[in-house]
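Most newcomers find our protein records easier to grasp once they have seen one. Nothing more is needed to start thinking about how sequence determines fold. Here is such a record, shown just as it appears in the course material:
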Amino acid sequence: MDLHDVDRRLNRFLGSLEEKCGSKENAKHIRRFIDYCFSIGLSKMRVLKYVSTLVKISRVIGKPLRINSTPTLKNPNQNLKVNFSQVMRAGPKPP
């Protein structure tokens, strides 16, 4: 029994991913990230949490997400290079 209806929530989220991301390129990268999360065995609820947070971050940054290569299982964080000082200076995009 799925108390939180995660399947429906995940399907709704994926259905409107391009609209939420603002670009097809970001949606493509986020879908690749979702596939990676499932491949390492994360639960649907955890993937939904990570992806919803990633979409919010991509909107705040206002720039396309770039993924250099697929992370390896030895070090999944190898490609997570973010200059947080630039992100903080940029601030949120005005509405």
Summary: Residues 24 and 49 are 21 Å apart (CA to CA). The chain has one domain: 6-90. The chain has a mean pLDDT of 74.
